[in-house]
Amino acid sequence: MRRLVPMLLALACVLPPGLPAQSRVRSREAERLIDRALSAPGATRRTGALTIAAGDRFAGPLVVQDGPLTIGGRVEGSVTAIDADVALLPGAVIDGDLVVIGGTVTGRDGARIEGELRILQEAAPRRARGEDDDPLRPRAVVTRDRQEDAEDAWVTKWRDAEWRQSGIRLTMARTYNRTEGWPIVFGPIHRTDFGWGRLALDAFGIFRTSQGTQWNTSTLGHRARAELRLGRNYGLTLGGRSYDIVDAVEPWQLSEGENGLSSFFLQRDLRDWYDRQGGQGYARLFAFDGAVTLGASYGQERWRSRGIHDVFALFNRPDGWRANPQVDDGVMHLTTAAWTIDTRNDADDPTSGWLMNADYEHGTGTLVLTSTTRGLRPVPSGAFGAAERTTYGRGFVDLRRYNRLAPDAELRFRIVAGGWLHGDPLPMQRRLSLSGPAGLPGFPFRAVGSAGSLECADGGAIPLGSPAQCDRIALAQVEYRGALHIDVFDWLGDAPAAPRRGLAPPGRGGQRYRGWSSRTRGSFVLFADAGRGWLVGAERPTDARFVREGRLPALPTFRSDIGAGLELGVLGLYLAKAVSAGDADVPPVFFVRVNRRF
Fold this sequence. Notes:
- The structure is a single chain.
- The chain has helices at about 5-15, 30-40, 145-150, 255-265, 370-375, and strands at about 45, 50, 55-60, 60-65, 70, 75, 80, 85-90, 95, 100, 105, 110-115, 115-120, 165-170, 185-195, 195-205, 220-230, 235-250, 275-285, 290-305, 330-340, 355-370, 385-405, 410-425, 470-485, 520-535, 545, 560-570, 570-580, 590-595.
- The chain has about 600 residues and is mainly β.
- The protein has a domain at about 30-120.
- It has a 17-stranded mixed β-sheet that branches. It has a 5-stranded parallel β-sheet with strand order 1-4-7-10-13, with helices on one face.
- The protein is globular and about 85 Å long.
């Protein structure tokens, strides 16, 4: 039975990705929902107050702006309310979805909504007066493509409406870790929209608080960028950047925000870090407003190991901070290619669609290899600490599928695979692992023993900091999500219904509790994971870490776990247990996430 888990996951996930028959051009979620409502066949548009009395039937779909909208009867279709409060009277029925943008919903408990409830607490986008006679038609906005969002995840994002603004920014980076403390980011930005494209210029200085007020090469860094985007929904992006930053070894696992919270509160940094200094030029083709991108870049970087500091943590662990593993130091020339396909209906919390991120990196340069790298696979002989010429190729694929089974039920699949493709052994900062909350959470993070095989560690010689050591990894994940209706503060009395997921600020009416609605809808999650990491080389009877080049590991060698969780808004509480053969003695692992697992 335990061996069936990897097999079922693999069969469920190996479905080819594809674009929808009609490609979507997406910007902000509010605009997407409004466009969908306005383009629905037979949609009725109303402006101002509207009441559908008890016993009345209204042939939908229905779009209402600047309400309020009161429903006591039945709407035979979906309802979209823009800048309008919606009051549902007892016995009200909506045969489709109810979408509210810039308003509130009351009386949901006494009504029936056959479809999905979506509430966006924001003002609906509109065209300027005189630009269009249709008040319900959304304006076109300047949006940032998904690649830009991913690249700027290290610093606080700005909304689309702020994208055109220029000025000086002073903010905190979206991370906290044992090598930097909390980086302070400051500097000028400039944004210009030409109509046919836009120009972005920024230059940030970075001050790392890990050493107090000391100013030196370890505490100071920078990041500067010049980028020209040609086109809106389809086009080309050209740019260059210079940087002196601290980067993560495996950024595909936990987000910087989650890892920062874990570090600040629990003194548990689940990332390894190294210095990256250099420059890069890049070009990127995009289509469908960034839903499809194809990019390439070339740059030169200097890599350096980075030590830890006794930075502040709210709750200290008895053994203190985990050591930051040593990386292979040197100068590398990097050529990369990346491909993204994103057909999700919502980038933040999707319920349908595909997401695929794939990239290839070719690196060549001179590195001083660590003793760990030398011990993993044969490397050219030489005195310890001598610089050696290194050339490698590395690939990585993250494929996800989201399926909505019912208004309150979802099924999600994910496959992650990547690692060494050709050339010399991978540097330490390009190696991979699977243990921990983002990979196989049923195995303790970087634990010595049974979980050691998930980072390809030799149980008899664990390097300082327990680094990731695998040449390749393969991981499959599946989860089922269902809705829970929970009254968090029911003793406060009636309160307006909150959005379908998470707590949200209250609207213009209803009971409030310290600025938040008292009722939320949570989710329960059931999940299973299977995967393993391995080293590429001649198979050794006494060392199961090695798999011959061109072959996959035997299926019974994959590790697997199952688990369950409860999500309330962005907070998720989970319990996972290893179930693969030989792992019965691994105790259950409890973990907390502040993002969806994927």
